[in-house]
Amino acid sequence: MAESARRTLIEAGAEAHDLPVHLVPGSFELPIVARALARQGYDCVLCFGLVIQGETTHDHWVAHGAVEGILRASLETDVPIHLGVLTVKTVEQARARALPRNQGGQDKGAEVARAALQTLLTLDAIRHNSARNQGSAS
Fold first, then answer.
1. b/e per residue 125-137 (b: at least 16 CB within 10 A)
2. Smallest Cα–Cα separation from 36: which of 6, 90, 81?
3. Whole-angstrom Cα distance, residue 70 to residue 33?
4. Does residue 88 fall inside a structural domain?
5. With the C-alpha atoms ordered 6, 110, 35, 127, is the resulting torsion angle positive or negative?
6. Domain holding 71: CATH number?
7. What span, in angstroms and rounded, lies between the C-alpha atoms of 34 and 29?
8. Which structural domain range is residue 50 located in?
């Protein structure tokens, strides 16, 4: 998913050297790393992970922690942090969602990258509108 997202961002004009990849041990650790990156000045952070259902409810708590933490980190930093954490029952389901479309998958990595680009465009428009409205108020 990360490679597909990277390809999508480069096709949209991003420079490869501006797209670092940072690995974490698991999905539960994504929020703290995402928040640290957002605080370092990145325009956007994309988080990719996988949570596979097991015999207990552990997967539920890991996924919930990742989702809640990523949302909180984004709101705390005012930086879009996008969720690309798959929650599935099997590895086959994960592959079906992660593989690029030309390989028969749903290409969730590219989907997350497109959502990030759209969010950045929307935020830029809102900020531009706000600056224009403040300038006309003086």
1. eeeeeeeeeeeee
2. 81
3. 9
4. yes
5. positive
6. 3.40.50.960
7. 9
8. 2-129
CA atoms within 13 A on the CB side of 34: 31
Strand residue runs (E) in 63-114: 81-88
78: helix, strand or coil: coil
Give the predicted TM-score (pTM) of the model: 0.89
How would you class 36 by CB atoms within 10 Å of its CB: exposed for 0-12, middle for 13-18, buried for 19 or more? middle
Nearest to 57 by CA among 65, 68, 49: 65
128 a catalytic residue: no
Name the active-site residue from 22, 58, 60, 128.
58
Domain-embedded: residue 135: no
On whether residue 134 sits in a domain, the answer given is no
Q: What is the pLDDT of residues 8-43, one digit of tens each?
A: 999 999 999 999 999 999 999 999 999 999 999 999
Q: Is the pLDDT of residue 137 over 60?
A: no
Query: Could you report the per-residue pLDDT of 92-134, keeping only the tens digit for each?
Result: 999 999 998 889 899 999 999 999 999 999 999 998 887 777 7
Q: Find out whether 21 and 1 touch, Cβ atoms under 8 Å.
A: no
Residue with tokens 């969010």: 119
